[in-house]
Each structure stands twice: as C-alpha cells, then as structure tokens.
Amino acid sequence: MVSLNKTAIVTGAASGMGLLFAQNWAGLGGSVVLCDADGEALAKAARGIRDSHAGQALDVLCDVREYGQVEHACRTAYETFGSLDLVCNFAGGTATRVLGVRGTIGEFPDVPIAVYDWGIDVNLKGQFYFCHAASRYMRRQKSGLIVNIGSITGMEGDGYGVDYPTAKSGVMFGLTKSVAQYGSQYGFRCVCVSPGPVLTRPGMAEMETLLGRAAEPQEIVDLILFLASDKGQFINGENIMIDGGRNAMGRGKA
C-alpha cells in the first residue's frame, strides 16, 4: 500500500492514464498536482477528484516543453503540500499522430522538422525537465521517486513517427539510469515504466502481444503504485517493460 499524506505530480493528467493515476493516488489519500497543457480539461479533472476522492487535488497549467512552467509546477507542489514524493511523467505522444500528420505527408524526410521537434520536446525534454526541476526538492528532503514513461516503441522503432522511439529510448535508458545514479546519493530513485499496447484508444487493441491482448490502463497504474509503495523500494534505475510479452516476440510482429 502507498503511504498516505504524500504528494505526487502527474503530467498529462487531464485525460488517459495520467488522469487515472491521479484518481488512484487521491483515492488512497494522497495529494496530487495535475499538470496538463489543456487548461479547461485539467480544471475539470481536478475538480472531479476533489469532489469524489479522499485526497487533495490541485491543477497547474503546464506545457512540459516550457521549463519555467515545469519549475512552477514543482515549486507549487512542494510549497502547497510540504513535500514532492512522486513525479509521474505521463505527458507524451507520437507527434505525427497527435498533430494529425500521419498518413497525410510523404515519408520520413518529407515530414516538416517542426513536427519532430514537437515530439522530441514533449517526449524527451519534457521528462528531462521534470527530472531536473523535481530533483532539487527530492535532494532537499532526501527522498522521492521519479517515474518516467517509456514505450515498447522505444525498443521497436518507427520508420515514420521517428521522434517517438528516439525520445522514448533516451528516456528508458540514458535519462532514467543517469537520474537514478545522481539521486542515489540523496535517497531518491528514478524508474522507467514502458508499456506495450494499452487500451487508451481503439488502435491499441490491434497490436499483437504474446498474451493476445492489450493492457488495461489500470494495470499500468497498479505497477507504478507498487513502485511507489513500501514493497517497491529496492527497484531503481531500471526500465520495466509491461507489454504482455510483445518485446519477446520476433521482430516481424505487427
């Protein structure tokens, strides 16, 4: 069980797994700072948590590409609730899909570089920014956990949405291991959780796994809750695949 009275920052918290994790954390009695670039959806999400969960919820508008906004979110969490115990970096997505480019513009060299810049900024720099800013507070309190979010695509690659596997592989290995190395001297950890297909949108059900299905979002959330609990304290600097065995399949998979 996760200890009560702890504070989490969750990015991408206006919807999807970010929102689900925030609801779970507050349901256990924790305080949660929800961060997202969609202010209207974010405010609604935080309001819903405050109305129906045991813990406290605060919404902080935050574009993870803007370091000043990331700093503000971390500072607000620490000053409002007195600690910063967990950061969950859910914000992300393949730029060619999110920006509506996939299938409409030629091949990899034909996609405007601004599209890929967006993907690198959100999926890599955004997580790097939160690792950097949150480390100040975790160093001060000599405790904490940063959970980065990787992806099976970081292992497989994508010949069109090239930004996404590039960013995710950097998060899964270089960033997570490096922050774990730094944090170990101050008592805080960094772990990466890398899902395979998750039923957050219809197309995910079509991706093959050894188990013959995609994950339920709650399965990803439960793994992170375990990492943050007393039972998960010996896990550090690791990339944990939760992909139904997809990475163990042959490389010709769909």
UniProtKB/TrEMBL annotation:
Record has Oxidoreductase as a keyword? yes
Question: Which sequence ranges form a coiled-coil region, renumbered to this chain?
Answer: none
Which superkingdom heads the taxonomic lineage of this protein's source? Bacteria
Which CDD domains does the UniProt entry name for this protein? SDR_c (cd05233)
Q: Which InterPro entries match?
A: NAD(P)-bd_dom_sf (IPR036291), SDR_fam (IPR002347)
Arranged from A to Z, the UniProt key words for this protein are: Oxidoreductase
Supply the Gene3D superfamilies for this chain: NAD(P)-binding Rossmann-like Domain
Entry's family note: Belongs to the short-chain dehydrogenases/reductases (SDR) family.
The record's listing under PANTHER family reads: 3-OXOACYL-[ACYL-CARRIER-PROTEIN] REDUCTASE, SHORT-CHAIN DEHYDROGENASES/REDUCTASES FAMILY MEMBER
**What protein am I looking at?**
SDR family oxidoreductase
